[in-house]
C-alpha cells in the first residue's frame, strides 16, 4: 500500500511540472446523533472523507486522485451494534462551473475493511467495498481555500466477516444520506 501511494505521489509531482497541474486537498466531515428515551434508542455517526487529487486541465474544474474514508457508526438499543471502517479508492471531484462553486463527487472504494460488533455480540473483522456520491456548494474564502456543504450518499457493501478465524461470506449493505461540511485547499 505504501508503494502505491508513493507511486501516485511521484506521478502527481512528475506530471505537475510538465503540465502545470494543480492539486487539491479536500476534507468532508460529518457528525450526527439522535436519541429517544422511551425505548432507549440512540444513534451516533462520525464520517470523514479525505481526498488528494490533481487536475491536468487549464480550467481546473476536474480533479482525480485518492479517496480515504473513515466511518464509525453506533446503534444503541438494549443490544448495541457498532461498525467502524477504513475505505480506500479512486475519487473524482468535478466543479460544474468556472467559479468552482457547484461540486459533484464520485468515489469507488474497492478496499473497505474494519470492525463490527453486532447486537452486543463478538467483534467481527469485516471487508467489502463502498461508493460515495455527493453534490454540494463551496464558497471561495481566499485564492486557495474554499468552504462549503455537500449532501452525501454513501453505500458500504460487506462481502465477508470473520470471527475467531472463521470466515463467512455475506451480503450486507449499510447506506446513509448525510449533510457534511466541506473544506478544500487548492494549490500549484
Task: Based on the model shown, name its key terms.
Porin; 188 residues; eight-stranded antiparallel barrel
Description:
The chain has 188 residues and is mainly beta. It has a single domain (2-187), classed as Porin, CATH 2.40.160. Helix content is 10%, strand content 71%. It has 1 helix and 8 strands. An 8-stranded antiparallel barrel has the order 1-2-3-4-5-6-7-8. A hairpin with a 4-residue loop joins strand 1 (22-36) and strand 2 (41-55).
Short summary:
It contains one helix and eight strands, in the order H-E-E-E-E-E-E-E-E. It has one helix at 2-19; strands at residues 22-36, 41-55, 62-76, 81-95, 102-117, 124-140, 145-163, 166-187.
Q: What gyration radius follows from the Cα positions, in whole Å?
A: 19 Å
**Mean residue pLDDT:** 87
* Helix run count: 1
Spans of at least 5 consecutive residues whose pLDDT stays below 50 are: none
- Global outline: globular
The name of the CATH architecture is Beta Barrel
What is the CATH class? Mainly Beta
* Helix fraction by DSSP (H/I, runs of at least 4): under 10%
Structural class: mainly beta
Compute the number of strand runs: 8
CATH domain fold name: Porin
Major beta-sheet overview: 8 strands, antiparallel, barrel
Amino acid at each position: 500500500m505504501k508503494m502505491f501511494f508513493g507511486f501516485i505521489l511521484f506521478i502527481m509531482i512528475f506530471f505537475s511540472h510538465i503540465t502545470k497541474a494543480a492539486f487539491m486537498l479536500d476534507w468532508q466531515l460529518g457528525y450526527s446523533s439522535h436519541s429517544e428515551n422511551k425505548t432507549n434508542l440512540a444513534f451516533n455517526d462520525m464520517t470523514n472523507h479525505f481526498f488528494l487529487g490533481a487536475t491536468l486541465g487549464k480550467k481546473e474544474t476536474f480533479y482525480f486522485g485518492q479517496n480515504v474514508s473513515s466511518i464509525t457508526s453506533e446503534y444503541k438499543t438494549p443490544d448495541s451494534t457498532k461498525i467502524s471502517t477504513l475505505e480506500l479508492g479512486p475519487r473524482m471531484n468535478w466543479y460544474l462551473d468556472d467559479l468552482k462553486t457547484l461540486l459533484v463527487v464520485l468515489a469507488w472504494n474497492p478496499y473497505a475493511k474494519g470492525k463490527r460488533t453486532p447486537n452486543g455480540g463478538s467483534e467481527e473483522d469485516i471487508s467489502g467495498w463502498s461508493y460515495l456520491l455527493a453534490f454540494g456548494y463551496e464558497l471561495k474564502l481566499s485564492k486557495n481555500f474554499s468552504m462549503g456543504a455537500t449532501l452525501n450518499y454513501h453505500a458500504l457493501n460487506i462481502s465477508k466477516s470473520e470471527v475467531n478465524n472463521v470466515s463467512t461470506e455475506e451480503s450486507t449493505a449499510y447506506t446513509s444520506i448525510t449533510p457534511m461540511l466541506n473544506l478544500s485547499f487548492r494549490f500549484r
